[in-house]
Design a protein that fits this description.
With 92 residues, this protein is of the alpha+beta class. The protein has 2 helices and 4 strands. It has a single domain, classed as P-loop containing nucleotide triphosphate hydrolases (Rossmann fold, 3-Layer(aba) Sandwich), CATH 3.40.50.300. It is globular.
């Protein structure tokens, strides 16, 4: 059974706090709904889970800290689809 855990997750951009001490544990089959206005940090939490932003605190999948995992492991365990796709200019 898989778990996704956040412990004291804090994310800052240029010294401005976007997420302050977020804590939660999700077990296999559970859902998490993040609700808030633009700029509240919802996407930042998801980006931290995907290992795409720097943060303090802890984000772990099955007790493996995201920063300590290899790129291959993250590709096998994490999927992230942004609202606005990041497509290189030379791709059609």
């Amino acid at each position: 059974m898989s778990t996704l855990g956040f412990c004291n997750l804090t994310i800052e951009y240029d010294g401005v706090c976007a997420v302050n001490s977020f804590n939660d544990i999700l077990h296999s089959g559970e859902w998490l709904c993040l609700i808030g206005p633009n700029g509240a940090g919802k996407s930042s939490v998801l980006r931290a889970a995907a290992g795409l932003v720097e943060y303090s605190g802890s984000v772990a999948i099955d007790q493996q800290e995201i920063p300590s995992t290899s790129a291959k492991w993250r590709a096998q365990h994490i999927a992230f689809v942004p609202q606005t796709p990041l497509m290189p200019d030379n791709m059609t």
